[in-house]
Structures are given as C-alpha cells and as structure tokens.
Amino acid sequence: MKNKEYIVVKDHFLTQEEFVLTKDPYTNMLRTTPKPPEGELVKYYESPDYASHNSSKKTFFSQLYFIARAFSMWPKTLMISKYFETPKKALDVGSGSGSFVKALTKKGWNTVGYEPNVKARAQAEKEGVVHITSLNNVGGSEYDLIAFWHSLEHVFFLENTLKKTIKGLNKNGMIIIACPNYRSWDARHYNSFWAAYDAPRHLRHFAPDSLKKILAPMGMRQINQWPLLLDAIYISMLSEKNLKNRFWFIKGLACGLYSNIVGFLNKNYSSHIYLFKKML
Questions:
Q1: Among residues 243, 254, 266, 248, which one has the least CA distance to residue 12?
Q2: How high is the pLDDT of residue 75?
Q3: CA gap 249, 237 in Å, rounded
Q4: Which residues of 98-135 are buried (b: 16+ CB within 10 A; e: fewer)?
C-alpha cells in the first residue's frame, strides 16, 4: 500500500521550510518528505538554541530544558536498575551533550556514547564522555543496554541503525527508546504547530504501536512502556511559542497538564519510553 499524506508541517525552529509527513499504513509511522540529503542535515542543527546539543543556560527556555532533563535522570536510572541487578555495559545512541552517559556512569555502568554531531560530541568529551566513532564498530554481543533517548526519530537509516545496534546486544540485552507520540492530545491540539514534529530534524514520527511492528521482525519483544510526563509540558510550551502566544508559559503549562490527564485515560501521552528485550 502506498504511503498517504498525513499533514504538512513547517520548520518553525530554524528555516521555515515546509515538509509533508506521509503515513506508512502498516507501521503507522510518519515519514518526513522530502528527506534532506544526509550531508545537508547538519545545517538544520546549526543553532545555539538547539538545546540537546549544547550546555548553555543563557535563555529562560534553555534553563527550563536543563531543569527538566535533570529531573528526568533519576527516574531513568531507577527504571533501568529494576531490570539489571548490577551495573553492566551500555551504549547511548545520539548521546548529545552526554547527560545520560554521565548519569549511568555515576551508577557504576561502563557507558559510552555515539553522537554524529561534531560540536555536541566535542562539548561532551570536554566533560569526560567517551564515544565510539561509528556504529560499524559495534561488536557482536558487546552491550547489555542500548538507549535511544529522543534520538531514533533523527537517524538517517532507521532499519540499518537498528540492525547494527541489535547485533551489538548480549543475549537477553535490552533497547530502551524514548520518542514523541503523534497520537497524543497535544499533537492533535497543536496540529501543524506541534513542536515535536520538528521537521526535518525528526525524519520519522511514531505511534505507540509503530516500534513493535518495526522491531519484532528483528527479534525484539516489547516488555514495558512508560509515559514521559514532563515532555507534554515542555512540548506544549514550545508549540505555544510556535503560535507566537505571548502567554506561552501559562498556556503551555495548562495544555501540557491536560494532555497528561487525557493520556492517563487513553494511554496516548505526548512521549513514551519503550523497553524491548532481545529474544533471538
């Protein structure tokens, strides 16, 4: 079946270009079209305001981002400790400024990052984060945990990236993925202004059942799923800024909280964390 047009969105963050999101009828995943050439994607990240690639806290909004990220680290590491009795070896794909690598390392894990963006990688290395240079260097059965914290939607070659990382998992190893959910209340409410579409940096957009359908043929089984409650508030605030609402903080806070209430009822939160276990 042919992919159908789902929505037209704009790069509100940087270039103001328009992109069409098309829907795959089997996986319910949306694809950003036209997909920029791999070598040109870097220009869409070239802004000091792109929060996950820097450690600057110059603006009020960047301060909000870092506060939310700091609050999220404790539940993330606690969640992981429930599935691993002792610290093991982990890889964070799309590690950005290295916050998760550092948090897991403090818990005793042998953790490395993989970050394609040169500036973000250099900043993280100044703070002691160790990186692998390529996913081609991932050895067979090397890692117990591989993480994609809001990074899978960015990867250029989805299937190839997933196959390489799954190859690097030990027997019964796990992959943890966090990504936005375009079926959430805030996504429907903000429509083309929903900040989590973030085209073309987000090349794909997932529904709650998308990753199951993509990863099952690769030998991965979903074993748990959780909401990311702060994401609804942060994304709603960004979306209000896209709408140029002068009261973006208050309106975004209200809409984010309401989205979480609706998510509690229908299990469609603004962002989800998915945990998959290697079965083959």
A1: 243
A2: 84
A3: 6
A4: bbbbbbbbeeebebbbbbbbebbbebbeeeebebbeeb
Take residue 265 and report the two structure tokens written for it.
Answer: 């009822």
What is each CA distance from 141 to 1, 33, 65, in whole angstroms?
36, 35, 35
C-alpha distances (whole Å) from 280 to each of 52, 189, 275, 277 are 34, 40, 16, 9
Q: How far is CA 201 from the centre of its chain?
A: 11
* CB distance 147 to 92 below 8 Å: yes
Residues facing 22 on adjacent strands: 5, 31
| Count of Cβ atoms closer than 10 Å to residue 56 Cβ | 14
- The token duo for 13 is 């963050």
Q: How far is CA 11 from CA 140, 157, 192, 197, in A?
A: 38, 21, 10, 9
For the chain, domains (ranges, CATH) are 4-278 (3.40.50.150)
Whether the per-residue pLDDT at 241 is higher than 80: the answer is yes
**Stretch 263-271: mean pLDDT:** 98
pLDDT per residue over 47-106, tens digit each?
877 755 555 556 666 676 667 677 678 888 989 999 999 999 999 999 998 999 999 999
Cβ within 8 Å of residue 246, ≥6 positions away: none
